[in-house]
Amino acid sequence: MTQQRNPQNDRRRFLKITSATAGSFLILGTKASGGIKGANDRVRIAVAGLNGRGQSHLSGWMGSENTEVAYAIDPDDKVLARGLKGIESRTTGSFNTRGVADFREALDDPSLDAISVATPNHWHSLITIRAAQAGKHVYVEKPMSHDVVEGRVAVEAQKKYGVVVQHGTQRRSDAGIAGLHEALKSGKLPRLKIAYGYCCKPRGGIGNKEVGTPPPNLNWEMWKGPAVIDQYHGNYHPYNWHWFWETGNGDLNNQGTHQLDVARWAIDDDQTHPVRAMAIGGRFQWDDQGETPNTMFAMAEYPNGQMVFFNVRNVNYKGYKNQVYNEYYLEDGSVITGEGRYKILRPGAKAPEDLKLEKGQVTPGGNWKSFIAAVRANDPKMANGNALDAHYGCVLGHLMNNSYRLGHEVPFSAEAGQFGDNEDAQTHFNKLHEVMRDGVGVPESAKYTVGPMLNFDPETERHTGDHADQANVLLKDPNNPEFQIPTVSEL
Q1: pLDDT tens across 240-287, in order?
Q2: Peptide bond into 293 cis (omega under 30)
Q3: What's the rounded Cα separation, in Å, for the pair 139 and 117?
Q4: 21, 44, 110, 297: which has the fewest C-beta neighbours closer than 10 Å?
Q5: Cα–Cα distance for residue pair 32/18, rounded to 1 Å
């Protein structure tokens, strides 16, 4: 009888081989155009988007051995010039980085190995898809997708062209988090009931900017790319695009993507998408131009009954409690807290105790160097946070956001939540409501937006049942003609 292969054992064996051969070469390959690279072969990468997170990308790649930033890409002339100056100041030897406004120029270069995407969200999937079609590996910031449909196309593009796609969710490179999740799924710990993520960091309002003409240094058509936006105003560029639905996904799928991804990572491996999701929240404290909620409680249920809860609280007040982490509620009543190193509060215990766990399996090197290692090996399996995992985590957030977008207003009260018989959801929503009422001082005259419970078919990635027609419209954003997201059949 042929012995059945264990993929986890294969991965452990491969990681041992790659560690032993660091400084030599790696020996796995796929359909990507670059082929296997020896350790002495320079990895040439393009960075798209040079503001904010793009600067972290530049530092990450320039801090990786024998890696060259071949292209710097940005539609803002001033940002591009500043980015090139910064790259030159950190370059030893000859400076050869090309600055371009259009990512397609970089993809046309046959000597380019990879592209690193730090653009606004509405660009993430399209660049990933086009790069895969060009045989380039992709490191793409979170969220990989701006909507559900384009995320699926990105997954299928990775499959078809065999390139490495790694999601910018750095916690996927944390062996401590991986170890906890392996323990939850192996039975070493009681079964997971609720994976809970928090994105509660202080933010202020963005004010109101008048509609006007884009500044001369900004190539507006290239900046908006696939996003259908009728008029320019100054809150789109450079950062506040996060808070508009055409370009961003709110903090739920901004900073929150990290905690959403960790929460979904903890769910049993045979689960893909949730079958139900809903959200309640609002944009409180600020009187500004933004559209996305700065306060949200959301829930999603998977076919096996496990749940993800999520909490967004991006306001500011005296005594604000910063919470950007994950919690794990187990079926025996235990609660696990921490990140990478954990404590567990067991039922009946007076205080939490340290939770000693073995490290889990990740590609070593952190998020930057693990990607370079995967590119050198030409092996998508080495990605810490691959395209499919990225899709599952992003869709979780998209469904929650879509519920909110279809919501109706109700009075600001603890009774606003519509969670059916889910007492856990009501309890956790009540905690958020108390903070907003007593800490922020939201008045009773305010309104919550309560989204419907949306049913979702994980196989077809379509909504079913009540509200399905309206919800399915939100699965795919409209695109401008020059920057259409292709269908799967067009790949």
Answers
A1: 999 999 999 999 999 999 999 999 999 999 999 999 999 999 999 999
A2: no
A3: 6
A4: 110
A5: 19
Backbone angles phi, psi at 416, to 5 degrees: -70, -30
Q: Give the pTM.
A: 0.92
The full set of domains in the chain, from first to last, is 7-173+364-386 (3.40.50.720), 178-361+391-484 (3.30.360.10)
CA distances from 406 to 244, 320, 467, 471, 482 (A): 15, 30, 8, 7, 29
The per-residue pLDDT for range 19-75, each reduced to its tens digit, is 333 332 222 233 445 567 776 689 999 999 999 999 999 999 999 999 999 999 999
